[in-house]
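May I ask for an example protein's residues together with how it folds?

___
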Amino acid sequence: MKPITLYIKKCSHCSLRYFGKTIKNNPKTYKGSGLLWRKHLKVNNAKSVHVSHKTFEDIDKATNVALRFSKMFNIVESNKWANLIEENAIEGWIVGRLRGKNSKEHNIKIGQSKVGNTYASFKRTKEQCHNMSEARKKDWEKRYKEKWVSPLKGTKMSEQAKQRMRVAALKRTRATDTKV
């Protein structure tokens, strides 16, 4: 059996964290697989920063450590963590799962853990919002502003086509000038 690695990841633009497990060889490059975590990274165009990890050969020890850590830091109910359920280090299974479906008790626990802990309820300070905005602006300038080239650059146009473009441009500017 492959060794199990428990890891902590942190978002590159805010303090949101994710606790998970993997059996991949290099946990530092693994982004994490939580639904809320992956959505958060995608929406904010952020990267997953590796904080720490611990590798276990014994599944019982990994499960014990994962559950204790989950409870100690209250990763399900805390807004500092992107975990929707407690980590249990069991490969692909959730504690309480029956034949591929969650038990009723487990579904109730998951539902209760989501109350007040949805992605939309994650509050940011004005400073965090400002920092994120500045980071996105820099990213946009780096990706698009410097590399943007007009699609018409280098194409030869007839005088008639040039005249039509001039007229269209004048109509656009006049329409915006007359609006109140």
The first helix runs from residue 35 to 43. The radius of gyration is 25 Å.
